[in-house]
Amino acid sequence: MSLDVTKAWVSRMYPHEKMLTTCRFSPCGKFVAAGSTDTGVIRWELESAKKTVLEGHGSWISALEFAGERLLTADVRGTVHAWPYLEEAPKPAWSIQEAHPVWLRALAASPCGKRFATGGHDRVARVWDAGSGKLVREFSGHEGYVFSVAFHPDGKSLVTGDLFGTIRHWDLESGKLVRELDAKVLHTRGEDFLADVGGVRSMTFDAEGKRLAASGLREAKSNTFCPGRPTVVVFDWASGETRQHGVKEEKTDGPANRTRFLSDGSLAGAGEGQSLGGLWFWKGEAADPIHSVNAPSLYDLDLHPDGERLAAAGFEAKGRGGNGRHTARGEYVANAGAVRVYSLTPQPGPKKK
Asked: Starting from the edge strand earliest in sequence, which strands make up the sheet with 177-182, in order?
């Protein structure tokens, strides 16, 4: 069945007691894994919805990726675990206790699954051996925090994106910097701001490696709830030329956190808001979405190996807003989380009798 993103609908939902920060489908297509603010890594079987919690982290889960038959998970303190995810009750095969001395923000696996890269607030990206967890190479030179990392599909290049909208293209064999790509539109620092806002929140290549999408926020109005315009800068990999996709809604209060190229060449993106986030779809040269789906704030997005389903991780509002303000002690109910699976094909009609 051909894709029709205008018919996208929630076909499954996997709830959790706390907010979910990241999610990925397994390469075998049988599981979806997510990371939570309660330090847990959750694995669901897609068909049965059987839930397994992998415990071993000591802080929020910031990133996770599948590499071969292992699930790599990272937390904000810099710990990385490698789980043999196909086992009934996985335990870490190896661990890195301090992949970054300060906040670890990004993790990506190489196309072959033998390497993975991390980035963090120490402004450094590192490449590791996925079989042993041993350090292979470091890439330094960013002036801002490294928010995102991605491998080119040919396995020869790594890109790293930072807070200021600078993307660095590295040759993996030599470790040398090849060029810089400009995504500075994703960074804002107003005269009355107390902090920089934006950055390259995620990067993803299309299947052929001809396009690179960098997502974030442009035209931020403040550094509090960060109202602005969720934006994706798409680079032609060969020439470095760009075009922009964006969201026109003024009520968004956060960036486009993650994007994924679909099999028909269109681009899906997920983002957040103070009261409502969204799932957006862009196609061709059009700057505005061809379709959007209202959703709770979404922090991550992944495409199933079948190419027909998206998983989006976010939160479910259970308590009052304002982080518990104006609530008596013991009355505030914390927000929860969920992974929503969106089917990108028309919803089946009722069965005939």
From this structure: 146-151, 157-162, 166-171, 177-182
